[in-house]
């Protein structure tokens, strides 16, 4: 098998040798054993499941949330004459049906799907007839609440084990702490997996923080002095346009990119940059996922990123070809204050959220015990003015109320019909047995749309009519009937922003905000914010050391090329003995003081912030510390 693997690598990819840990991961999954691969951005994760697909009989299912990655990898594989298919939400039911048939009866080697696809009936039926050799889960950190991009749909992946009992699982990620890895093992139901963990060291990448009050000047200096293409990341759409305009006035071939652009324009801008027609792309974090461009010479963050995880992944898009490259954060003191304010706006006080709940119902003229399943045209700005509150705080409060199941908020000007099942699968089955007239219609819905049991999903009555044979007015009647029978939540199409009340209005004292939607999320956001602020502010420890130790890498040595190392200020504060000493301090403090928040605990520890946070994460991973429902920390012995 070893010779076969080498032959495929050389013949298909033109390489004579593997990158670190690729061979070990490939041999593990081919042997039928579960595996976890922690490889940095640009470390060659895709080959660890693409090559096994060619080395074995059968099909590899690749689960990923990245539509861009699906598209790019399928196109690249087809250019190599490898039959690969991607299924996404833009496809019609007929196209999806045909693609899945090809996976059963054809010679498809790789099937790319989003995790939401797993719950669809049409996929489940075909899965039983597929010859699957491997399930690869990309961006596996998404399964953890401690991961930087939690996706609830990832929790359904383990259910594939019911059908694919002996098929190995391969979990891949570029950014995961020990806590996140523990969640990956548990929630994917991995069976004695082998763990391969690459170093987070990027010797060719220079990590730099520039403290400046004139970011435009620093940005231009870097762009003019570093040859080659680059990415400038900004937090707002307007900033991308303003900075791109500024660079163009200085003679730099630059363009902007953000999610507010039409898809065809986004694709065009991305392609121009990828092919080198545009030198610098100024973008929000909507840009970059799944993009394969190896010769990026610099990645500049014009504002401080949200977290270390996000920063490392975005910065890691520079220098994938091994050439010397730069990852630069432009920082000024006000940036830290903005990060803190951003969290305060994302998580208004609970009393304020409940007050907004009350004012919302007053605004809509809904009394106690009324309003369930009613839908209203809704202007956020009008409501904010009525409430006499800041619009961002109002928006954040409404999103938290939405997470708790009280409302559904849509922001589009032209809102399609949206539905969500109110009943579980078992109750739906009973209803279908007892109501034959709607059974065929429900089958069409389940086969055509995904995520109907967990989220509001946009549907198209005209398209349903076309594929089902029911006239459009009958489709609407079915939807109304299912709504009246409390089988679905039904929000008809409107040409304005909408708000739907999912439950009757409660007295303000009875409004409950679940910890997992507020306290836990806020604590995680605070932890990540403290880490990235500390990274930018501190000037005593090697930048690469801070990043690598954040991901729990041991025995790290200074890189020698970051701004801190070059200033010869690197210290050896974080020795193993000091780490253990801080662990003991944390446990001792929590044994004497209950109900400490993350901020309060860190403030009591006499050490650098990132060391304190690393210790806290390690104690959680070891099961010696846990987070209570209110977000405070507790020693497991208390």
What does this structure look like?
By secondary structure, this protein is of the alpha/beta class. The chain folds into four domains: 2-197, 3-Layer(aba) Sandwich (Rossmann fold), CATH 3.40.50.300; 200-332, Rossmann fold; 348-414 and 498-517, Winged helix-like DNA-binding domain superfamily/Winged helix DNA-binding domain (Arc Repressor Mutant, subunit A, Orthogonal Bundle), CATH 1.10.10.10; 417-491. The strands form five sheets. The chain has a seven-stranded parallel sheet, covered by helices on one side. A six-stranded parallel sheet has the order 8-13-12-9-11-10, sandwiched between helices. Helix 5 links the parallel strand 3 and strand 4 (110-113). It is globular and about 75 Å long.
Regarding CATH, which class of the largest domain?
Alpha Beta
Strand-pairing-aware structural class = alpha/beta
Shape: globular
- List the strand order in the largest sheet: 3-4-2-5-6-1-7
What multimeric state do the chains show?
A: single chain
Helix content: 40-55%
Percentage of residues in DSSP E strands: 5-15%
Unreliably modeled segments: 570-574
Q: What would the CATH topology of the largest domain be?
A: Rossmann fold
Keywords:
638 residues, alpha/beta, 25 helices, six-stranded parallel sheet, 15% strand, 43% helix, Rossmann fold, globular, 4 domains, seven-stranded parallel sheet, Arc Repressor Mutant, subunit A
């Amino acid at each position: 098998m070893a010779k076969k693997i080498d032959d495929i690598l050389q013949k298909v990819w033109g390489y004579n040798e593997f990158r670190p840990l690729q061979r070990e991961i490939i041999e593990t999954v081919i042997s039928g054993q579960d595996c976890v691969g922690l490889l940095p951005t640009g470390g060659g994760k895709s080959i660890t499941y693409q090559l096994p697909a060619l080395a074995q009989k059968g099909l590899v299912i690749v689960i990923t949330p990245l539509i861009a990655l699906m598209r790019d990898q399928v196109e690249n594989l087809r250019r190599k004459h490898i039959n690969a298919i991607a299924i996404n939400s833009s496809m019609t039911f007929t196209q999806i049906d045909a693609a899945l048939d090809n996976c059963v009866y054809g010679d498809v080697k790789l099937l790319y799907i989003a995790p939401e696809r797993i719950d669809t009936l049409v996929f489940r039926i075909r899965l039983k007839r597929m010859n699957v050799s491997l399930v690869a889960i990309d961006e596996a950190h998404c399964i953890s609440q401690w991961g930087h991009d939690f996706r609830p749909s990832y929790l359904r992946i383990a259910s594939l084990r019911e059908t694919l009992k002996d098929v190995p699982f391969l979990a891949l990620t570029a950014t995961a702490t020990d806590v996140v890895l523990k969640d990956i093992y548990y929630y994917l139901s991995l069976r004695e997996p082998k763990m391969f963990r690459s170093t987070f060291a990027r010797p060719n990448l220079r990590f730099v923080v520039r403290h400046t009050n004139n970011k435009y000047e620093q940005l231009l200096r870097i762009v003019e002095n570093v040859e080659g293409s680059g990415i400038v990341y900004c937090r707002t759409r307007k900033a991308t346009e303003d900075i791109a305009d500024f660079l163009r006035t200085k003679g730099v071939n630059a363009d902007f990119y953000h999610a507010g652009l039409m898809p065809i324009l986004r694709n065009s801008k991305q392609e121009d940059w990828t092919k080198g027609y545009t030198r610098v792309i100024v973008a929000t974090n909507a840009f970059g996922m799944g993009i394969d461009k190896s010769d990026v010479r610099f990645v500049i963050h014009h504002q401080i990123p949200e977290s270390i995880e996000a920063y490392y992944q975005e910065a890691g898009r520079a220098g994938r070809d091994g050439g010397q490259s730069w990852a630069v954060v432009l920082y000024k003191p006000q940036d830290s204050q903005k990060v803190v304010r951003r969290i305060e706006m994302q998580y208004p006080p609970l009393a304020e959220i409940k007050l907004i709940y009350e004012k919302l119902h007053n605004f809509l003229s809904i009394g106690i015990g009324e309003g369930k399943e009613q839908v209203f045209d809704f202007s956020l700005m009008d409501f904010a003015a009525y409430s006499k509150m800041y619009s961002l705080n109002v928006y954040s409060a409404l999103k938290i109320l939405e997470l708790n199941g009280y409302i559904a908020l849509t922001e589009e000007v032209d809102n399609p019909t949206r539905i969500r099942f109110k009943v579980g699968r078992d109750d739906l089955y009973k209803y279908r047995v007892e109501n034959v007239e709607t059974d065929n219609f429900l089958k069409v819905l389940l086969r055509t749309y995904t995520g109907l049991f967990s989220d509001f999903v946009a549907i198209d009555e005209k398209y349903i009519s076309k594929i089902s044979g029911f006239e459009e007015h009958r489709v609407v009647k079915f939807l109304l009937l299912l709504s009246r029978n409390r089988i679905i939540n039904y929000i008809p199409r409107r040409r304005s922003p909408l708000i739907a009340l999912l439950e009757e209005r409660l007295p303000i004292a009875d409004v409950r905000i679940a910890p997992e939607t507020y306290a836990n999320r806020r604590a995680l956001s605070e932890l990540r914010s403290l880490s990235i602020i500390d990274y930018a502010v501190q000037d005593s420890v090697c930048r690469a050391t801070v990043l690598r130790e954040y991901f729990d890498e041991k025995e790290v040595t200074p890189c020698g090329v970051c701004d801190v190392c070059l200033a010869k200020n690197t210290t050896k504060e974080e020795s193993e003995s000091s780490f253990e000493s801080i662990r003991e301090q944390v446990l001792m403090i929590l044994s004497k003081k209950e109900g400490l928040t993350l901020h309060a605990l860190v403030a009591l520890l006499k050490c650098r912030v990132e060391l304190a946070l690393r210790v806290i994460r390690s104690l959680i991973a070891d099961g010696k510390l846990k987070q209570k429902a209110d977000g405070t920390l507790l020693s497991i012995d208390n």
